Amino acid sequence: MSTSTIIRFENVTKQYDNDAAVLDNVSFEMERGKFYTLLGPSGCGKTTILRLISGLVEASHGKIYINDKLVNDVPANKRQVNTVFQDYALFPHLNVFENVAFGLRVKKLKNADIQKKVQEALRFVNLEAYENREISEMSGGQRQRVAIARAIVNEPEVLLLDEPLSALDLKLRTEMQYELRELQRRLGITFVFVTHDQEEALAMSDEIFVINKGKIQQRGVPTDIYDEPINRFVADFIGESNIIQGKMLRDFVVQFDGKEFECVDQGFNPNESVEVVIRPEDLEITTKEKGHLKVKVDSQLFRGVHYEICGYDENGNEWIVHSTKKAVVGEEIGLYFEPEAIHVMRLGETEEEFDARLEAYDDQGVENGN
Amino acid sequence: MELNNNGQERIKKAALLSIIPGLGQFYNKQPFKGVVFLAIFFVFIIQMATFGIEAMTGLFTLGVTPGQDHSLFMLIEGSLQLLILAIFLILYAINIYDAKRVATLASIGIKTNKSFIDIMKNVYQNGFSYLLALPAYAAMIFAIVFPVLVTVLTAFTNYDFYHIPPANLVDWVGFDTFKDIFFLSSYRDSFMAVLSWTVIWTFAATTLQIVIGVFTAVVLNQKFIKGRRFFGIIFLLPWAVPAFITIMSFSNMFNDSIGAINTQVIPLLNHLPFIDIDAISWKTDPFWTKIAIIMIQGWLGFPFIYVLVSGILQSIPEDLYEAAKIDGANAIQRFRTITMPAIFAIATPIFVTQYTGNFNNFSMIYLFNEGGPGSVGAGAGSTDILISWIYKLTTGTSPQYNVAAAVTIMISIIVIGISLLVFKKTKAFEMED
Ligand SMILES: Nc1ncnc2c1ncn2[C@@H]1O[C@H](COP(=O)(O)OP(=O)(O)OP(=O)(O)O)[C@@H](O)[C@H]1O
Ligand SMILES: [Mg+2]
């Protein structure tokens, strides 16, 4: 734990009534001033984590710290945390100004101070001119901003955002992604952002927590999570992947699809069973002769940026390829890939073991370099 | 646009000619229209000659020979004739307007419909919605405007038990009845007594039922309460039984000498320590009668409010409360800033109808104790409200139809005025969707 830690979960478990645990013995730390994303499928416990941080629900077991202070028994309004709700949760009978001023009025601030703070918050979200509008007269994106202004006007140290963009259309959504990221930089506070959209998570975050079934599967910066997923779930959830059973013959050599391939992974037992990931965009279409794999094209979709080509090799494994080149359905093509494109995953490896293994050969790499 | 002298002349001529309906249309070369207007005019003349003139003079005099002229029939026939006259005047105005408009169009060179077919086409295209609504308007005039007109006119006569036609004549007395109600001490005191009790009753009973309804809905909406559904069903019982049955059984229960309240409930309560209540004169003491009917109405009226508000509460997103909680709002602040506005935004119009409903809640007042006990003069009992007083004024042994009509007018003005005011106000914070 360092002084820059703002939120810390220690073995936190959450159960509703006597049902199975919704969050199962979760521990993590979050640093001040960073943009965190909780990513996972529906019902995995993302909202539950936010509600635990904000104090709207209590942990069944474990300890929650904010600013190094145990907050398990601190009520929601005494934590330096504010929330932007998915459906905005704006008060329909109050206008924009009064919605933003709500928390300040509850705290009985002077009118002049309220005026100043609300205007500042509205300026932050580019809504200066909308003070006297009714909520019903605002568009979806504008309501979103009002909700953000209402949260930041209380000067929280942590802002929790529960799928704030899911109700917006694609274009507005992309726009708001930039704006949110920019807002977080300007405010310099910690954002904890929930989404089940992996592209959104990759684009916006300093760090991503991938969650499944109440457990954190993997945490790390977007590129690490994308390039080195810890297991099948993460590989599948973050972007599209070709995942295939294989065997690690020895360091730097993996066998799958009946062939041996050179790779960059090491630290496995000889002949260990593994899963191999190759991203669709790392596969290159060539002639049958030049390819590592021979694949018969089964279907092809135009996705705008690229074609998504789906085919089967002679052993019946499915391969998805993203290519700017077009293929012909029914034809046999060759697939080529570099050793770096292969990512080998150990079966049932925990996050700690995974990190330790990666670290071990990073060190080795440094030694070798010497 | 500029009109040359020629055109001006033409419009003037068309307008002047149509002083006799139809001539303006003939001048505009629209003979079909002209025939229609002229026919209407002739029908009106004939109607006036055979029936109308007599009816109008009858309305004016209300009869001259007692025993022969029936003032009431003359009043009714006269009112009918007034409506016919009004309809004709409207058609007459349309006739002049039409002649002028067609002449204007023609003089600036716009082609007007000359043939029968063209005119029918035009009516079909532009006037179809009016044509469709015509029967509804006609029905409205005779089903609503006509009786209202008769009532209003009655208020300006001396139609009471001294002047029952055909034995006696009824006469116009102008505002005398209103003057009596407001200034003649005997009437004024009864009127003020009834009016003030009506207002107190309306506010006390309606507010009570709304408060109980909102309170039960809010309490039963709390998640930690067990058996909410069971309570919900129990609360619907008062609603399920027809009101007049409930009122009559309550009326029996509150009977001074043999009712269950005095013979069983109060003795039972007296077993409790520190409580010692005598039998209460529910039916003979005006104060206790008033207390009883307000309580019974609260009991009768709250289930509806409960159902209404429960629905509204369930539609308030839980997020709103959580957002307020995070901002530090306590339970009372949350109720005031989230729950109350949500309820009022939706239910205000219905609350208003509850108030106006109790303002005219005849069955509660009349079935419980027939407006009694006692009397505040002019036939009104101490718990009579305006509507039950009107009933007594028109049905008793010495009816005063003119007073009843005058009070009816005042009730209508009050109810309509308040409703309009409140509905207009609620529009101001009308919600989206
Ligand atoms: N009040 C509650 N009582 C019982 N179970 C609950 C309650 N709230 C949430 N759960 C359960 O907890 C689990 C996790 O819920 P949570 O809301 O954290 O999911 P989520 O990751 O936010 O999903 P989504 O992406 O759909 O919002 C779900 O299985 C849900 O059914
Ligand atoms: Mg959620």
From TrEMBL, chain A:
<keyword id="KW-0472">Membrane</keyword>
<dbReference type="GO" id="GO:0043190">
    <property type="term" value="C:ATP-binding cassette (ABC) transporter complex"/>
</dbReference>
<dbReference type="InterPro" id="IPR017871">
    <property type="entry name" value="ABC_transporter-like_CS"/>
</dbReference>
<keyword id="KW-0067">ATP-binding</keyword>
<dbReference type="GO" id="GO:0016887">
    <property type="term" value="F:ATP hydrolysis activity"/>
</dbReference>
<keyword id="KW-1003">Cell membrane</keyword>
<dbReference type="InterPro" id="IPR008995">
    <property type="entry name" value="Mo/tungstate-bd_C_term_dom"/>
</dbReference>
<protein>
    <submittedName>
        <fullName>ABC transporter ATP-binding protein</fullName>
    </submittedName>
</protein>
<dbReference type="InterPro" id="IPR003593">
    <property type="entry name" value="AAA+_ATPase"/>
</dbReference>
<dbReference type="InterPro" id="IPR050093">
    <property type="entry name" value="ABC_SmlMolc_Importer"/>
</dbReference>
<dbReference type="InterPro" id="IPR017879">
    <property type="entry name" value="PotA_ATP-bd"/>
</dbReference>
<feature type="domain" description="ABC transporter">
    <location>
        <begin position="7"/>
        <end position="238"/>
    </location>
</feature>
<keyword id="KW-0547">Nucleotide-binding</keyword>
<dbReference type="GO" id="GO:0015594">
    <property type="term" value="F:ABC-type putrescine transporter activity"/>
</dbReference>
<dbReference type="GO" id="GO:0005524">
    <property type="term" value="F:ATP binding"/>
</dbReference>
<dbReference type="InterPro" id="IPR027417">
    <property type="entry name" value="P-loop_NTPase"/>
</dbReference>
<dbReference type="Pfam" id="PF00005">
    <property type="entry name" value="ABC_tran"/>
</dbReference>
<dbReference type="InterPro" id="IPR013611">
    <property type="entry name" value="Transp-assoc_OB_typ2"/>
</dbReference>
<keyword id="KW-0813">Transport</keyword>
<dbReference type="Pfam" id="PF08402">
    <property type="entry name" value="TOBE_2"/>
</dbReference>
<dbReference type="InterPro" id="IPR003439">
    <property type="entry name" value="ABC_transporter-like_ATP-bd"/>
</dbReference>
<keyword id="KW-1278">Translocase</keyword>
TrEMBL record, chain B:
<keyword id="KW-0813">Transport</keyword>
<keyword id="KW-1003">Cell membrane</keyword>
<feature type="transmembrane region" description="Helical">
    <location>
        <begin position="230"/>
        <end position="250"/>
    </location>
</feature>
<feature type="transmembrane region" description="Helical">
    <location>
        <begin position="35"/>
        <end position="60"/>
    </location>
</feature>
<keyword id="KW-0472">Membrane</keyword>
<dbReference type="Pfam" id="PF00528">
    <property type="entry name" value="BPD_transp_1"/>
</dbReference>
<dbReference type="GO" id="GO:0042956">
    <property type="term" value="P:maltodextrin transmembrane transport"/>
</dbReference>
<feature type="transmembrane region" description="Helical">
    <location>
        <begin position="194"/>
        <end position="218"/>
    </location>
</feature>
<feature type="transmembrane region" description="Helical">
    <location>
        <begin position="72"/>
        <end position="94"/>
    </location>
</feature>
<keyword id="KW-1133">Transmembrane helix</keyword>
<feature type="domain" description="ABC transmembrane type-1">
    <location>
        <begin position="195"/>
        <end position="422"/>
    </location>
</feature>
<dbReference type="GO" id="GO:0015423">
    <property type="term" value="F:ABC-type maltose transporter activity"/>
</dbReference>
<feature type="transmembrane region" description="Helical">
    <location>
        <begin position="291"/>
        <end position="316"/>
    </location>
</feature>
<dbReference type="InterPro" id="IPR035906">
    <property type="entry name" value="MetI-like_sf"/>
</dbReference>
<feature type="transmembrane region" description="Helical">
    <location>
        <begin position="401"/>
        <end position="423"/>
    </location>
</feature>
<feature type="transmembrane region" description="Helical">
    <location>
        <begin position="130"/>
        <end position="156"/>
    </location>
</feature>
<protein>
    <recommendedName>
        <fullName>Maltose/maltodextrin transport system permease protein</fullName>
    </recommendedName>
</protein>
<comment type="function">
    <text>Part of the ABC transporter complex MalEFGK involved in maltose/maltodextrin import. Probably responsible for the translocation of the substrate across the membrane.</text>
</comment>
<dbReference type="InterPro" id="IPR000515">
    <property type="entry name" value="MetI-like"/>
</dbReference>
<keyword id="KW-0762">Sugar transport</keyword>
<keyword id="KW-0812">Transmembrane</keyword>
<comment type="similarity">
    <text>Belongs to the binding-protein-dependent transport system permease family. MalFG subfamily.</text>
</comment>
